[in-house]
Amino acid sequence: MLALYRVIIHLGCFAPFVWLTSVLLSGDETALGTDPIKEIEHFLGYTAIVIFCIMFLLGIVLQLRNKNQYQILRRPLGLWAFFYALLHVASYLVLELNLDFTLFFKELVSRPYLIFGGIAFIILLVMTMTSLPSIKNALGKKWFTVHQFAYLAIICAGIHYYWSVKSLTLDPIIIGAVICFIVAWRYLSQYILPTRR
Hints:
Blueprint: H1 2-26, H2 36-64, H3 74-96, H4 101-110, H5 112-130, H6 133-139, H7 142-147, H8 150-165, H9 170-192
Helix pairs in contact: 2-3, 2-8, 2-9, 3-5, 4-5, 5-8, 8-9
């Protein structure tokens, strides 16, 4: 059953990439709106933050159902979130800045929402690297402490997303509410589920 769940997760996370690839190969630029480059960047970033949120929500559901043996399913979700975050950054660097690294770092330090996005990306990168079995074993108990920074990452990603869309529409409201719930659960679960910690 665990293997089946893994397959479902991978197929579900791969689907947005397949859709975007099919749109790009079709040559139908209107499918991405009036500014295709911006739409590609936003789509990849949005997909990353949605998968990242799902990773946390799955953990909460498993905790509530006392199915902690399935917590391992959160790992592929985290890796897919990093995959889309990496594509999000790469699309900005390649499509918008034409691989101008000087301009990239100049933009990064001058725009607050990019700073928050950069923090989230670095944390995701560290989490991905420390998910390798050899590094995880080397870290020992410190591995859990390192991965607690995921909560900081989701907060920074949420702020980055809200500022990047530059409008209070339904999507950032929903994402913001989900992130608030995730962070609140992190601190309240110890009182709600004291016997399952």
